[in-house]
Write a structure and sequence with these properties.
By secondary structure, the protein is of the alpha+beta class. It has 3 domains: 1-78, no CATH class; 87-194 and 376-413, Hedgehog/Intein (Hint) domain (Endonuclease - Pi-scei, Chain A, domain 1), CATH 2.170.16.10; 210-356, Homing endonucleases (Endonuclease I-creI), CATH 3.10.28. It is built from 12 helices and 26 strands. The strands form 10 sheets. A 4-stranded antiparallel β-sheet has the order 11-10-22-14. The chain has a 4-stranded antiparallel β-sheet with strand order 18-19-21-20. Strands 8-9-24 form a 3-stranded antiparallel β-sheet, with no helix packed on it. Helix 1 (23-34) packs across helix 2. The longest helix has 15 residues, at 284-298. The two termini are 30 Å apart. The relative contact order is 0.18.
Amino acid sequence: MSDNIYLGNPNLKKANTSIEFTQEQILEFMRCKDDPVYFAKNYVKIVTLDHGLMPFDLYPFQEKLVKRFHENRFNICKMPRQTGKALALDTPIPTPTGWTTMEDVKIGDNILSPSGNNVSVTMKTETMYNHNCYKLYFDNGEEIIADADHLWEVDSSYWRTGKKVIKSQEIYDRYKSKAQNKRGKGVQGPLYIEKSKPINFIKNLLDIDPYLLGVWLGDGYSSDGRIIAHKDDYTFYKKRIDVEYEREDGNCIRFKVKDFISKLKSYNLLKNKHIPQNYLRSSYEDRLELLRGLMDTDGSVTKNTRSFEFYQKNYDLILQVVELLSTLGIKSNIRHRKIKGNYYHTISFTTEEQVFNLQRKLNNVDSQRSTRIQESRHYIHKIEKVDSVPVACIRVDSEDHLFLCGKTFIPTHNSTTVVSYLLHYAVFN
């Protein structure tokens, strides 16, 4: 082994070692020295556990920032400890197995990305305090608190250049300016974030058929596992479910399912209707069949809006169905109304996916329906400044720097701009 090799790495030479370069290498070195953006795009890589080396891509505003540093002879880079594009510690973060929070997520954890795949957390800051914080309100009811520097990949119907990555502070300034401009001159529409694609979970071993579980959650007896159905629907159920006939009552039939009670007990479902977590994190087809069971019992399609609706008194179940829809890449909204002292909840959504199995409900679906453009976007309804809360920032190993947050899977952003410039500065200065 050569005495000039440093730490056994043939690509590293000891200090003061004489190295001969080719003319081509010298020209490439000079180009990298003169162009930090070229250097970052071609020679800076992100090391990840699951995906190996990934390219270090810069957004246009990041390229502009790096070039400004390079073009000025003297630079002051003020970087206190508590910096970062941060979210409140209690922000929910969906994972392949359930949920975590910004406070509890750790380096190496897998979380979800808008592409529908897992991404790994490669960096996390310490908890940071006294940051200016803002609460973003989305049109589907989601609320997320982020600090002023947190980045969001947003778009507007009025922008011809497409998506931009901007800070919470910039969103606040934009909306504040819009509110103060009473005449509306020069005011553009709301910003929006593209919704996530369907999430790719692996298929879980499920003791209860997902469709059967959905039917029972909708029209089943909580205490003993019986299911009530119209006799016409019962004819269909017998083809899908291993049922035991029980009793006919007018146009309805109450029936039991073989070996059902023991399975409900194993999931702690008796007198406790809910969707077990492994169903919400199973394969796309399993989740879709679960949704079809729910919709065949408590769902409908509206003729005037072509949207689907799901009704329930059980608000906890409503929230889980919203989560189920989010995993399928479907945006939804909840409405509430009070009838005779009881609250009823309605989820509305649109999708081109088939969400019924019962033919009588399929017959009501408009074959020409299409998902409205608004349903593919999370619109920022408003943003307001709030009291400062503890925050933290993470970085993930995705090429687009995006991950999902919030109960309805809102795509959000992380950034690594400063890292590339400091590396260039260390190499060439």
